Fold this sequence. Notes:
Chain A has 14 helices and 15 strands. Chain A has helices at 23-33, 38-41, 63-75, 98-104, 107-110, 122-139, 151-166, 179-188, 209-215, 237-246, 331-334, 347-384, 409-416, 477-493; strands at residues 84-85, 143-144, 170-174, 195-199, 220-227, 250-255, 273-277, 293-297, 310-314, 320-324, 390-391, 400-404, 421-422, 425-426, 466-470. Chain B has 2 domains: 102-358, Aspartate Aminotransferase, domain 2; 367-490, Aspartate Aminotransferase, domain 1 (Alpha-Beta Complex), CATH 3.90.1150.10. Chain B has a 7-stranded mixed sheet with strand order 1-7-6-5-4-2-3, with helices on both faces. A 3-stranded antiparallel sheet of chain B has the order 10-12-11, covered by helices on one side. A two-stranded antiparallel sheet of chain B has the order 8-9.
Amino acid sequence: MPTGSSSPRPDGRVALDYTPHSEADVRELLDAVGVGGLEELFAEIPPEVRYQGELALPAGLSESELAAELERLAGADCPASGLVSFLGAGVYDHYVPAIVEAIVSRGEFLTAYTPYQPERSQGVLQSIFEYQTAICELTGMEVSNASMYDAGTALAEASFIAGGQTRRGRVVLSEGVHPEYRQVLATESAGFGPRPEAVPLAAGAATDMGRLRDALGDDVAAVVLQQPNVFGALEDMAAAARLAHDAGALFVAVVDPLSLGLLVPPGEYGADIVVGEGQALGNPMNFGGPGLGFMAVTSKLMRRLPGRLVGETLDIEGRRGFVLTLQTREQHIRREKATSNICSNHALNALAAVVYLSWLGKEGLPALAELCARRAAYLRERLLELPGVESYTAGPVFREFAVSLPVPAARLAEALVPRGFLAGVPMSRFAGAFAGRGPASGEPAVASTGRSPRGETPGAAGLDDVLLLAVTERRTRAEIDAFVEAVADVLSSGEARDA
Amino acid sequence: MPDGDATTACRDELLGREPRPTIFERSRPGRRAASVPALDVPDRPLDDLVPAALRRSRPARLPEVAEVDIVRHFTELSALNYGVDSGAYPLGSCTMKYNPRVDEQAAALEGFRGLHPYQPESLAQGALELLHTFEGWLCEIAGLARATLQPAAGAHGELTGLLLMRAAHEARGRSPRRVIIPDTAHGTNPASVVMGGYEPVPVASDAGGGVDIEQLRSIVAEGDVAGLMLTNPSTLGLFEEHILEIAELVHDAGGLLYYDGANSNAVLGISRPGDMGFDIVHFNTHKTFSTPHGGGGPGAGPIVVGEELVPFLPVPIVERRDDGTYFLDHDRPRSIGKVRTFYGNVGVLVRAYAYIRALGPDGLRGVSERAVLNANYVLAGLRDLFELPFDRRCMHEFVVSATPLREHGVRAMDVAKRLLDHGVHPPTTYFPLIVDEALMVEPTETESRESLDRIVAAFRAVAREAAEDPELVRAAPHTLPVRRLDEASAARRPVVRQRFPEDGEVAAP
C-alpha cells in the first residue's frame, strides 16, 4: 500500500504532504516501473540494515497546526530587535529596508541551485558579479569571491591562503580579533594550515605593537588585525601592515563592512586579504546565522581564492554574460588538490547585501556610518559622566566601544533586562580568549604567544566589569537617554553589585 | 541591434536578450534610494569623532539609483533565473525538491530572525527549544547519539566530521593518516580530507557499482587507516549492499565510518546510517529537508555522531535542564572547539524543523518512497536511449551515459544545453567521474506524473534531435537570454568586477 501522510488518519487530520501523487498515480508509476509495490523498490537494501519500525518523531501536522507551533516557539523568544538593544560584537541590529526582503524572497532566486548552467542562471550570476564589485569598492581590493559562510570560516580560509602562498607555518593574530573568529580558525587548523598564535592588547584595547613586532619572524605566513577590533578600538592598520610585509608575511584585515563608509579601506593600507562578517549588510540577525562571510584579495592572490568566483564573458554571438570562473581551483575538478573544500557560497545573503548597498548608495553609506558614529559617541559621553564608569576602549571609535563599570557587567545587563534594555555584551563571556588568563571551562583558548606573564597587560586585568556597547541607526537619542538613566539608576541602587 | 532586423529585435526582446546594464551602469549622479534618520544628538565636526587620517578620502563608488530602479533591476535579473518554483530541476545529487512556503514564513517570524546571538538565553527559550528538539530528530533519523548544528554546508560538515574523527583517534592514543574514499565520491570528500590533515586513498568501484571489497581489504591491510567516507546510496544512485561487511573491515582496522548524507533523500525511515555502521553522519538540510538552495546558499550541514564522538562535538550544544528550560552548554572540555561563529545557520534550521514537523515519520518515509519511485519511472522512460553503466534498481537518482550519442558528435554537455531549450533544467553532467559522458538524474518526490513525463519527453526529443540535426543540439541553447557562454576565455582573462570608465582598461592579473 502506498504510504505517505496524505491519507486521513483516524483522528481526521489531513497532514501536510508536498508530494503531488494521488494513490492512483502511485499505482500507475509502479506499474510502469514493473514492480508490485513500493517495498519492492528497496529490495536491494539488505534486511539487516532495513529499518523496520516507525521513526520516533511526532506525527505530521496540518499547515495551520504547524504555523501555530512555530508561532508558539517564536513567541517564547523575546528578540533583541524588539527591545532597546546595544548588542553587537559582530552581529548588528541595523534596519533592513523593505525592498531587500521583497527581492530575496522571489522564487527565481530563492529556489535556484548554484549556477552550474550559466545560460539559465544569468540572474544570480550577474547579482554575484555586482556583489563582488560592491565588496571591491568597499574594501579597496581588486578581487572579491562570491561570499562565504561567515567571518570565522573566512578567516580560517585566509590563513590557509597565506600558508599556501608563503609556505610558512605560523599566523599571528591580534587578540583584538573577535574571539569566536579566532576559535574557528584554531579549530579548523587542527590538521592543516599555519599554527595560529595570539598577540595581546595594550592599554586602551588596541594591539600591543611592540609585542606584535616581537612575535614576527621568517616563519610567519600572515599577520591578522581587526578594524575596529572586538573592543571597538581603531588599530594602526598601516603600521601593522608594514610590520607584516617587512617580515615577508601577508597582512590580513578583518573589517566591519559598514565601518568602511567612514574608515580608510584596507586596500589603501596594504592589506593582502580582507575578510569580515557581512550580516549588517541587509541581513537580519537570525540568532547569528545565516549572515555571510566576505573575502577580498589582491589580484596576485586571485588564483588562491576559495569558493565561488563569477567572471564576465561573452556568448557566441558577442553578448555579455556571466559565468562561474577559475573553477580549476575548486574541488569538483581538483578534488584533493583544490584550494579549499568550499563549493557553495551564501548567495542569497550576498544578494541581500548588494541590494542593501545599492539602496544605501554612494551617499547613503557614509551618511549612515556617520550617524552611527555620532550616536555611539553620544552614548559613550553620557555613560562616562556616570560615577565609576570609565573608558576601556581608548581613542576614537566607530559604532562600538567598551567601558569598565563599578559593578560586574553581566549583573548590570541582567538588571536592565526587566527595564527593556539589552545593555551590550559583557566581555566576561570571552574570558579565556585574552592573554594571561586560563581558558574558561569548555572554551579552548586560542593559543597565546605565551610571552605575557599573567596579569601584566590591561587585557589581563579582568573583564568582569567590561561591557561592550554598539549603537546602530535604530537607537534614537530618546532611547539612549532613557538607557543612560536606567544605568545610573541601577548603579546607584546597588542592585548590580557583586553578591 | 547588430543586424538592425526588426524580427531579430522582437525575438531578442521576447527571449530577454536586450542589453542588461549592471546596477552600477544604471547609476546617475545625485540619485538615491536611502533614507537616513534625523541627527538627534549634538552635531560636531567629524574630525572630533574620527581623525581625518583614519577616514577614507573618497566614498566607495556604490550605485546612485532610485528605489524603483533597484526593484526593477533585480526583478529583471530574477526573470533570467530558474528555480524549483519555475519548473522541474532533476539535477542529480542536489535534491531540488519543492521548498514549502510555510517554512519561509516560519523563518521570517521576528522571534527567530530578530534574535541576537548574545542576548540572554532566558529571552531565547523558543529558539533553543527548537534547536534542541531538531537535534533529537536528526539523531533519530540517523540512528545515532548527538549532533552539532554548527556546520553551514555539507562540505563544512565533512570537515567538521573529519576533525571529530581526528579528536577520537587522538583520544584513543592513535594518529593514523589515511582516509579511504570511493572513486564515485563527491569532490568535496577528498578536499575535506586534506583540510582535515589526512591523506585521501581512493578505492575503486566493482562491476556492480559498489565498493570493490577485495581492493578495500588490501588497502585496510596496509594499515594506518583513520576512516572511510561513503555516500549510501552512492552517487550512482545505487545502494551499497555490502555496507555491513565494509563497516566491519574498517572498524576492525581501528577506522571510523563517515556517512556523506547528500543522498539521504532515498532512505528516510527506510534505512538509518547508524544501523549501517556509520559513526559520523552529515545531512544537507538544503537537500533532504527542503530548505531553499538560494542560488548557492545558505544551507546547513549538521553532523550526527555515535556515543564515542559526543565529547568532541563543537561548543556550544543546546541542553535541557530538569526544569524544562534550555541553555547553551559551553562547558565541554574535550570539544574540538568551534567550526562556525555562534550556533550555525539558525534561520535555515528553522525551515528544516518545520519540514520534519510537518511530515512526521510516515510523511518522511513517503518522501523517500516517492523519490525512489519517481527516479525509477524516469529511468524506465530513458533506458533505451542511453547506456546504463550499472543496470540495477536505482534509488532516488540514476546515472546514464550519453556515449550512444557520440556517433552524432553530441556530448553530455550538448544534451544538457539543449534540455534548457525544452524547458527542463538539465541533470548533473560528467559526474561521477567513473562514468563516461555521465548524466545524473534526480527528479525528486515533488514532481508529478505529468512533470516526469515532460522530463522524459524532453530527453527523448533531444536524443531524436541529436540523430536528425546534431548541429542544433551542439549549438544549444537557442531560446535563452544568452547563447552558449565562453567559459574558457573567462578563465584565461578573468574580469571579476565591474570596471568604471574613469579607471580605464585594467590589465588582467
